[in-house]
C-alpha cells in the first residue's frame, strides 16, 4: 500500500510518462506498444492523423481548383457557382455537433474510420455525374462535407490527449500545416488532372484512393483507445492497474454530462465565444477567397488582355496552380511562424495568443484589400499581396485551436470544437462564397453585360472580406481581456 501511494504521488508531482511507470513494475497489458516506446507510438498516430487531414483538405478544394470548368460545364451563374461550396460547408457544419457529441462519448477511431470511408465513396461517385444532373452533383458535395466533419471534429482531440500543453501547440501546428498544404494541393491536383486528361471529372478520382490508404493506416497504427497524457490520469491509471484493472478509460470521458449542460457551460466562457467569433471571420475570408480568387484573377487577366475569354475550349488553369502553390507556401510559413511566436511571447505575456491572432488579422485584411485594388493594373502585385494576406491568416490556425484547448475543460473539448466549427462555418465560409456570388450577380444586373463589369462586380463583392477581417481582429482583442481568467477556471 505504501508503494502504491508513493508511486501515485510521484506520478502526480513529476508527471512521469506511462511507459516509465510500467518500467517500475506496473503492468499495462492493453497498451504494450505504448509501454515499449510510447513516444514513437504517439508520433505514428500523429502522422496518420496528419495524412488524413491532408486528404481531407485536398478534397475540400478540388471544386475551387476547377471552378471555371464546372461553371462552364453546368452553365452556372456566379450565385449558383458559389452555392457548390456553400452546400458542402453547410452539411459539414451541421454534422460537426453530432460528431462532437459522439466523440466525447464513444470510440473515436471507429468514428474516424467510418467518416473516411463515407466521403471517399461519395467523392468517387460524384466523378460520374453528367451535365444533366447538376442537383446530384450538389448533393454529393454536401454528403462529402458530412464525412469531412467527423475528421475535423475528432482528430484534434486525439492529439490533445497524446501531448501535454508544452508540446501540444507544436504538434497542433504540424497537424494544421496540412490545412494549407492540402488546400493548395487540391487546387493543383484538380487543375493538373483537368489539364492532363481534358476532363475535369478525373480530379475526383484520386482522393478516394488516398482515402483508402488513410483508412488502412488508421486501422493498423492507431490504438483502439487513447490514454490521456496528464499526471492525474496517469496516477489514476497506475492506481487502478494495481487493483487488477484491465484498462482505464479516459478520465475526461467518464463523466457523462448532458449535451445541453456542456453547451451552457461553453456559452458562459467568454474566451471561447470571442475566439470563436474571431475564427468565424477567418472562415468567412478564407472561404470566399478560396473559391473566388482563381476566377477573379482570370477575369483580371481577361480585362488586361493577357488571356482570351474561356468560351469553347478547356479553361486556363494556371491561376489555380499558382494560387495552390501560394497557399501551400504561405500556409506552412504562417503556421510555423504563429506557433513560434506564441511559444516565445507566452513567456513575457500571458495574453500573447489572442494578441498574435488580432495583429495578424489586421495585417491580413490590409494586404487583401490592396491585392483586390491593384488587380486591374498589375497581376504580379496582386499575387504578392494575396500571398502576404494568406500568410498572416495562416498564423492563426494552430494558435486559435490551442486557445480552445486550454480554456475549455478536457471532457468538453470535442463538443467545444464541434460548436466552434458549427458557428464559424454557419456565419463564415458556409455563406461567404454564395454571398459573394449573389452580390456579384446583383452588380452585374445593373449594367450592360461586359467583361470589364464582370471583373468589377467580383472585385467590389470580394472587398467585403477585408472589412470582415478587421472585425475578426477586434474579436481576438476582446479575447485577450478574458483569457487568463478562463484558463485558470479550466485548470480548476
From TrEMBL:
PANTHER family: PROTEIN SPINSTER HOMOLOG 3, SPINSTER. It is found in: Membrane. The keyword Ion transport does not apply. Its main location: membrane. The chain crosses the membrane at residues 43-63, 83-103, 110-130, 136-159, 171-190, 202-222, 281-300, 320-342, 354-374, 380-405, 417-440, 460-483. Residues 45-487 form the Major facilitator superfamily (MFS) profile domain. This is SPNS3 protein. Keywords: Membrane, Transmembrane, Transmembrane helix, Transport. PROSITE patterns: MFS (PS50850). The lineage of its organism: Eukaryota, Metazoa, Chordata, Craniata, Vertebrata. It is a multi-pass membrane protein. Belongs to the major facilitator superfamily. Spinster (TC 2.A.1.49) family. InterPro entries: MFS, MFS_dom, MFS_spinster-like, MFS_trans_sf. Coiled coil: none annotated. One of its GO terms (molecular function) is transmembrane transporter activity. One of its GO terms (cellular component) is membrane. It comes from the Eukaryota.
Amino acid at each position: 500500500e505504501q508503494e502504491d501511494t508513493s508511486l501515485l504521488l510521484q506520478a502526480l508531482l513529476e508527471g512521469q510518462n506511462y511507459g516509465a511507470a510500467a518500467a517500475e513494475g506496473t503492468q499495462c497489458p492493453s497498451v504494450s506498444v505504448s509501454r515499449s516506446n510510447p513516444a514513437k507510438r504517439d508520433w505514428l498516430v500523429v502522422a496518420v492523423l496528419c495524412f488524413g487531414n491532408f486528404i481531407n483538405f485536398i478534397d475540400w478544394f478540388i471544386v475551387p481548383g476547377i471552378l471555371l470548368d464546372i461553371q462552364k460545364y453546368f452553365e452556372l451563374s456566379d450565385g449558383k457557382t458559389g452555392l457548390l461550396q456553400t452546400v458542402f460547408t453547410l452539411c459539414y457544419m451541421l454534422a460537426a455537433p453530432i460528431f462532437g457529441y459522439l466523440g466525447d462519448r464513444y470510440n473515436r477511431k471507429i468514428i474516424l474510420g467510418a467518416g473516411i470511408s463515407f466521403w471517399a465513396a461519395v467523392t468517387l461517385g460524384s466523378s460520374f455525374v453528367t451535365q444533366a444532373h447538376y442537383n446530384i452533383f450538389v448533393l454529393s458535395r454536401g454528403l462529402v462535407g458530412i464525412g469531412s466533419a467527423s475528421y475535423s471534429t475528432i482528430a484534434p482531440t486525439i492529439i490533445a490527449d497524446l501531448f501535454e500543453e508544452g508540446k501540444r501547440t507544436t504538434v497542433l501546428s504540424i497537424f494544421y500545416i496540412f490545412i494549407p498544404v492540402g488546400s493548395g494541393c487540391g487546387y493543383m491536383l484538380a487543375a493538373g488532372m483537368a489539364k492532363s486528361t481534358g476532363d475535369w471529372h478525373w480530379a475526383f478520382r484520386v482522393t478516394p484512393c488516398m482515402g483508402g490508404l488513410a483508412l488502412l493506416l488508421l486501422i493498423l497504427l492507431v490504438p483502439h483507445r487513447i490514454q490521456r497524457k496528464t499526471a492525474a490520469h496517469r496516477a489514476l491509471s497506475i492506481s487502478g492497474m494495481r487493483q487488477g484493472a484491465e484498462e482505464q478509460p479516459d478520465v475526461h470521458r467518464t463523466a457523462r454530462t448532458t449535451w445541453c449542460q456542456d453547451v451552457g457551460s461553453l456559452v458562459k466562457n467568454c474566451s471561447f465565444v470571442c475566439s470563436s467569433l474571431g475564427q468565424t471571420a477567418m472562415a468567412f475570408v478564407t472561404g470566399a477567397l478560396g473559391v473566388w480568387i482563381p476566377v477573379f484573377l482570370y477575369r483580371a487577366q481577361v480585362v488586361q488582355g493577357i488571356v482570351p475569354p474561356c468560351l469553347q475550349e478547356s479553361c486556363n488553369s494556371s491561376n489555380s496552380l499558382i494560387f495552390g502553390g501560394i497557399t501551400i507556401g504561405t500556409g506552412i510559413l504562417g503556421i510555423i511562424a504563429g506557433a513560434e511566436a506564441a511559444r516565445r511571447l507566452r513567456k513575457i505575456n500571458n495574453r500573447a495568443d489572442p494578441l498574435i491572432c488580432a495583429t495578424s488579422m489586421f495585417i491580413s485584411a490590409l494586404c487583401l484589400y490592396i491585392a483586390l485594388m491593384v488587380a486591374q493594373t498589375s497581376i504580379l502585385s496582386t499575387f504578392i499581396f494575396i500571398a502576404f494576406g494568406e500568410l498572416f491568416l495562416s498564423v492563426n490556425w494552430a494558435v486559435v485551436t490551442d486557445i480552445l484547448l486550454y480554456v475549455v475543460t478536457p471532457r468538453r473539448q470535442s463538443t467545444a470544437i464541434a460548436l466552434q466549427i458549427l458557428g464559424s462555418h454557419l456565419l463564415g465560409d458556409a455563406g461567404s462564397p454564395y454571398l459573394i456570388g449573389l452580390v456579384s450577380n446583383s452588380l452585374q444586373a445593373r449594367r450592360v453585360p461586359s467583361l470589364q463589369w464582370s471583373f468589377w462586380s467580383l472585385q467590389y463583392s470580394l472587398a467585403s472580406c477585408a472589412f470582415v477581417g478587421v472585425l475578426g481582429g477586434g474579436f481576438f482583442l476582446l479575447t485577450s481581456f478574458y483569457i487568463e481568467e478562463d484558463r485558470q477556471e479550466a485548470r480548476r
